Fold these 2 entries.
Entry 1:
Amino acid sequence: MGSAKDKIWTEILRSFNIEDTTIRKKYILQLAGKRHRGWRTFLTNKYLKDKENFFVEYDPEYPVKYAIFITEEEWVAFVAQRRDENFKKVSATNRERASNPTYAYKKGRLGYARLEEKILDETKSDATSLPPHVLWKEARVGKDGTVRDDVQHIYDECETLSQSISTAEDQENRSVLSRALNVPEYPGRVRGKGHGCTPTSLYKNPRRRNPSNQEVMETLQALQAQVLQLQKDNERYRCMEKCSSQLKETSEKASINCQNKFPEGISSCQLYLSSPTYRLVGKGKVHNTSGDLLHHRPLPDGHLKVSVDVVLDKDALLPIPDIVSEATLLRDAIGSFVAWPLDLIFIDDETPTKPASKDKGILRHNESVASQKEVFAQGSQQLSQKIGSRQKNKRDLPVTYLPKKGAFVPRYQISLETLVDSSDMATAGAIRLLDMEEDIFGYSCTETIGKEDLEHIFRHQELGVGVIHTYIRFLYDNFMRGNDQLSNRFRFVSSSLVNKALICREPDSCREYLVKRFMASSTNNLYLWPYNSGCHWLLLAIDPLKEVVYFLNSIDGEWTNYPDMKQLVDTSIKVFRSQRQARVPRTKSSNITWIKVVLYSATVSIADTL
């Protein structure tokens, strides 16, 4: 077979002038094979069949006219192969299928390549090629311009699949057109692109090869580094759990003001959580009645029935998810009943304090917030007023305020904590509400920030969404409000509506929000999105029109380490492209540009670490 191909190629080069033989050789040999099959069909119809297209019973004569091409031995083998019953069966099946195609080609002798050039010239498009399903549909439009319903249905299904199928899936001989038609595909061809087009030539895929020993060792070292990093993260999480469990253990000295028994009936209470940090998350009423049930089911051991009235930490998780409403966040349980651990419920006439003793325990403050006057409104009102008096010496400060023995405490940290202690935010659990205008995140909302958030900033601890959004509000007020140049250039994405938990649980809602934000953009809009990966904040700057994403990571890491986040951004940009009916080249349609912004530690200031 190889010698025959070489002979054919030699004859072709002797008869024709071919410029680029390295690229055209494969296609020309494929075309020669097609012509050869046509010639064999011609011999069959002329010498082996009668006028009624039936095989003759007698032995056909040897075609002396073609003796220079066919030897007598080859002719005998050819006749035997054509008279074989299996060949006749396959030939009849192929003739029947070709005579009545499901989706008939309507362009006559005009091939796919010429048809594509014609469409691009008529539309004056800058694109170099058309998607296969678009070209497939145009090839089945009649002279009157009508499109059959079944053809239009396949095209609409291709448009839907193109928004959900990744680039890798689209290149594995299962394109959106093949999936919509639901027919088997053969390797080496691309449906809807005509003869000679292969996946390699269309997608520019390099041939797969076995990795070298050096590549295997590099991959092994990378995997070992990932395992070590996972072990470090696991150890860190264990330390965090250990610290939170130590806070739960209450010693005798630290439990002097702790109620061993809740009053019967309904009492106002404060709701706390101990993980990942010990903090006040909401207020409500505890229902301490004998035989009380929660949604017609017995309460878990060590829990009481609580109705949630006020949420102070909107990202707080419920200790036990609500099985009726399937709520997992505290903010989704407002006005309903949930189960809450006994050791994290405190009656309003007594606020948990953090005693300055060496014993481990739930640290509580000796001031009550029950007398705080709370005013809840949609505006940016203050919810808490300064109450009582507070001693300012270190003996009265909670344990968490005191540094470790011998540890250095920066002067600015002491000054900031003193400033907060002298304000109306001195009380544990005191909060303020900030109005977030619609221009900031695309919707109006109210952000909560409490004393605990300020302490996290002062001590360079983990920051919550409220702190990040408050800083965004600061940037908006001081740089963008009234400045058309900056406000038209930069916009923000809410970390409350698009975060790791929601991406895993409700990816559709996250994508809809991003697309809605992108659709409101004008020329050269850059969207800033703080993304919390679970234990670390990242920053993404997204240019949806140019389809460029700038990835900012203060620690070493690539965007490939966050596949859910990357897939959400890529899909949102593609949907945004489809909704604004933008046409891009085939080589660009599935490739969103990601650029890693390198940070230099020498330029990072103290403010960058807050």
Entry 2:
Amino acid sequence: MDEVVAEFLVESGELLDQLDLDFIALENDASNTATLASVFRAIHTIKGTCGFLGFSKLESVTHIGENL
């Protein structure tokens, strides 16, 4: 299980880095639907993995982000 959690941390870190870039891009062009879709995909991926791993509190946080 530790290996799975370690992979989750790596993948989530990469997704969060991409989210940072996407948020900056949306500040410059809020109408970019591809960037907005990328934001929701990243959040959804993190949420799904949290659910799979049983990280219910973090899953709840990402679920809120998904509903913004």
